[in-house]
Specification:
With 415 residues, the protein is α/β, with parallel strands linked by helices. The chain has two domains: 2-139, Alpha-Beta Complex (Spore Coat Polysaccharide Biosynthesis Protein SpsA, Chain A); 156-406, UDP N-Acetylglucosamine Acyltransferase, domain 1. A nine-stranded mixed β-sheet has the order 6-7-10-13-16-19-22-27-30, with helices on one face. Strands 2-1-3-5-4 form a five-stranded mixed β-sheet, sandwiched between helices. Helix 6 crosses helix 7 (389-401). The longest helix is centred in the middle third of the chain and has 20 residues, at 156-175. The chain is globular, with a radius of gyration of 21 Å.
Length: 415
Amino acid sequence: MNILLFEDADVARLYPITTGRPAFAALCASYRLVDWLRDLGAPLVPVVRPHLRALVAADYADLRPNLSWDQEQTLIVNARLVPTASNIERLRSLVRQPSLGCVRCGPVLAAAWLPTATLAPLRDREEYGAVLAAIEQATAALPELKMALMLFEYPHDYIRANEAAFAENIAWRLNRGGYREMAEGVFVQGSVSISDYVVTNTQRGPIVLEDDVAIGPFCFLRGPLHIGAHARINEHAAVKDSVCLGHTTKIGGEVECSVIDSFSNKQHHGFLGHSYLGSWINLGAGTCNSDLKNTYGKVRMEYGHQQVATEMQFVGCMIGDYAKTAINTSIFTGKVIGVCSMLYGFVTTNVPSFVNYARSFGQVTESPPAVMEATQMRMFLRRNVQQRPIDIQLLHDMYELTRHERQISSERLML
């Protein structure tokens, strides 16, 4: 069996979460989709947007560049599939059944199980759009199977899915073994450091700590939680209710029901709730976001010029990779913060990528990639990470991809 993991044309709707990473690498409820699919034990072939090919080849060296044509059958998976234990179990059942077919979410292909030979046109196609067309052509005539698979449609879906799937994903993780229970409902792997006067509450779910996690004194942890390897929880922090932390993160203040991906810092006082933070983000001291409207009503998001009803009462902010906030920055409910942006003061509107946003002070200016190159280098050095040419190129590619976001002259003040 092969696994063909493809980003479809709608992956751009997930910006800024997927601006600088493949959709299968976005963290949610303690897992990434690629983590689940690796467990299936089959050759895994990614189809990603052109600007991510070099990055994927370098950072996911175990993935294959081409299908193995000697494999009789291939499982096709949309990279926007929500990484939940339920979804993966449905994929397992798909490949166990003898009948071939596809699973769609509306008109969109979510997964397919088909003979590898039907994908022969992919041999001669390298252009991204042509590959997507070949996949659609190969699956068009397949019978549609009755199976429920969930796809991410918009960035706020990550917040919804993180909360909804946390319990089942954590249970799956613990059932696989490798953890020891050091206190009631607190599970650890490897060596962890927990200071005195840390209070844990596991009535709502377990707390899972990966290797080399350090918890400072006087912290409050309420499960379910997943804290990634090498994370640091600073003294007096409160981390609670479906918080998912990637590896090498630093956390302080109050964090609730949020995803913070690897190498990001929120290590000072301030509140973060029902939000998604990408990688290499730094929130300055006193930065807070709102995740609830004063009217207690459902939150509507603005993506470009489109208004989308979330049907959710709690929605915070979606922040793209490399974004930074100054001290005491205040982010209003349901705001989208682009990659490589710098925020100051009150954030009352969505923020484009690569801008210095100080609207409350009367200034919004563009930040060129050269500034982010130097910033990236300094950040990497602090974490003993080598800056590679592909990391620099990604900054320039993201700048071009988000150029349209910076047409902000007519943007209205939106509270």
